[in-house]
Amino acid sequence: MNLYVATHNAHKIREISEILPNFTIIPDDPEGVEENAPDFAGNALIKVRAISAKHKGSWAMADDSGLEVEALGGAPGVHSARYAGEPSSTPANNALLLKNMMGVTNRRARFTCVCAIVDPEGKEHIVEGLCPGVIADVPSGASGFGYDPLFIPDGYDVSFADLTADEKNAISHRGRALEKLRALIQK
Ligand code: IMP
């Protein structure tokens, strides 16, 4: 079954393909859309609507995700990709997060992933996955992407970037949201 996915992020496409191996994942860039909603669900809907119009009768999805840090009032949140400004830079984002967390004792944080889905009848659905954890004092690990080296999920003493892809997918916000997506599609 085809699943059109509104992203050009190769890491996300790989994770989605690993979690949903029975689907043919077809990336489609939602060109020109502005992700200006105040929350993850709003941005995911903006993106999926932009591609589903081109693929009527098929499943389409978009995810919007980010890291919310308690001591920073939920930042970087919907601004996770561009926390340190334009252009989007993982090293700059991670450096700014570490700087803003210097001396902060409450290191609670969570990743959120919201998937907006349009089914073959054109009906919209929203599913969400959360992964709670803490922000590390120093980066660790070489796998994954984004803030992975700085995020230690609850129940672990290593970062997301220290885990294998399978280990991360089993507990991650995206893994949890995509499990719900899988259940929805298989209904
Ligand atoms: P978007 O969902 O493409 O708008 O971007 C979300 C941003 O949140 C990414 O660019 C990353 O900085 C961050 N992010 C989302 N999911 C993850 C993850 O699984 N690991 C690390 N960073 C993530």
Care to describe what's here?
This protein has a six-stranded mixed beta sheet. The protein is an alpha/beta fold and 187 residues long. Helix 1 links the parallel strand 1 and strand 2 (24-27). It is built from five helices and six strands. The longest helix has 14 residues, at 173-186.
Short description:
By secondary structure, the protein is an alpha/beta fold. It has 5 helices and 6 strands. Helix 4 (165-171) packs across helix 5 (173-186).
Strand arrangement within the widest β-sheet reads: 2-1-3-4-5-6
User: Using DSSP, what is the number of strands?
Assistant: 6
Category from helices, strands and their pairing:
alpha/beta
Strand content: 15-25%
Counting DSSP H or I runs of 4 or more residues, the number of helices is: 5
Q: What is the terminal-to-terminal distance?
A: 14 Å
Q: Mind telling me the C-alpha Rg?
A: 16 Å
Helix content: 25-40%
Question: What low-confidence regions span 5 or more consecutive residues with pLDDT below 50?
Answer: none
Largest sheet: 6 strands, mixed
Shape, principal axes of CA atoms: globular
Question: Which cofactors or ions or other ligands sit in this model?
Answer: inosinic acid
Mean pLDDT equals 95
What's the SSE pattern? EHEHEHEEEHH
